Amino acid sequence: MLTSAAVCPHPPLLIPQVAGGAAPELDGLRAACDAAVRRLGPADLLIVVGSGPSTRDFGSDAAGGLRPYGVDLTFGPGEPVLPLSLTIGRWLIGDRPALFQSVAEDASPGACLRLGADLAELAPAVALLVMGDGSACRDAAAPGYLDPRATGFDAAVAAALAGADRAALAGLDAGLAAELRAPGRAPWQVLAGAAGDAVYDPELLADTAPYGVGYLVASWNRRAMTP
User: CA-to-CA distance for 186 and 203, rounded, in angstroms?
Assistant: First the structure.
């Protein structure tokens, strides 16, 4: 059963050693991510979910590294194998034990929802850290250049996260997300599948696009049942 979730983006610049002198530009986003992770409630199992080349379970001991981004940093034991999304997630949780699950960036919405439902059944109380960026087309300097649909797409995701609207997340258009270079679509739909029919108290902690890429941070906590 999903008891809490944190949603965070995964730009490598979130890590100060990668950002260098530009690190202060993301101080607010970094603080929001830290707050979302701190709000994850007590759980029997923490699972970090993020997009990758394929859908696979990396277990609990997998490492991630940042050498491709010019910094010789590794998080976790062994040779780095985690995709970027899970590498940043591993950094965010520090020493907290967790499982690491990637979901293929092109996975169908149905497959994402099923994966989420399966993950929620792995323990009586499951917490998810969901890693995902929004569109990369918010302005002309963005990695995907300017696409006028990007602002509306990100706004719809922000509203869904702010309202714990599972149906809205489940209904995100995979084709549009791919065109807008939004790798968060699949992980967000995993969250929708994990949430089931429970009621959550949500809060949107950040909604920004400093480099033309949509970055969203949110916190969901399952509402206690009243007698």
Answer: 20
Task: Compute the 3-state secondary structure of the chain and give helix, strand, coil in percent, each to the nearest 5.
Answer: 40, 25, 40
Q: Are 54 and 104 in contact (CB under 8 A)?
A: yes
* Strand 56-59 versus strand 99-104 pairing type: antiparallel
**CA 90 distance to own-chain centroid:** 12
Q: Answer yes or no: is pLDDT of 227 > 60.
A: no
Does the pLDDT at position 225 exceed 70? no
pLDDT above 80: residue 216: yes
Backbone dihedral angles phi then psi of residue 35, each to the nearest 5 degrees: -65, -40
- Local structure of 225: helix, strand or coil: coil
Per-residue model confidence (pLDDT) at position 226: 53
- Residues 40-93: pLDDT tens digits? 989 999 999 999 999 999 999 999 999 988 899 999 988 899 999 999 999 999
Instruction: Kindly report the three-state secondary structure assignment for every residue of 164-213.
Output: CCHHHHHCCCHHHHHHCCCCCHHHHHHHHHHHCCCCEEEEEEEEECCCCC
From CA 86, how far away is CA 97, in angstroms rounded? 13
Domains for the chain: give ranges and CATH numbers: 2-222 (3.40.830.10)
**What is the dihedral angle through the alpha carbons of 99, 7, 186, 63, rounded to the nearest 10 degrees?**
-30
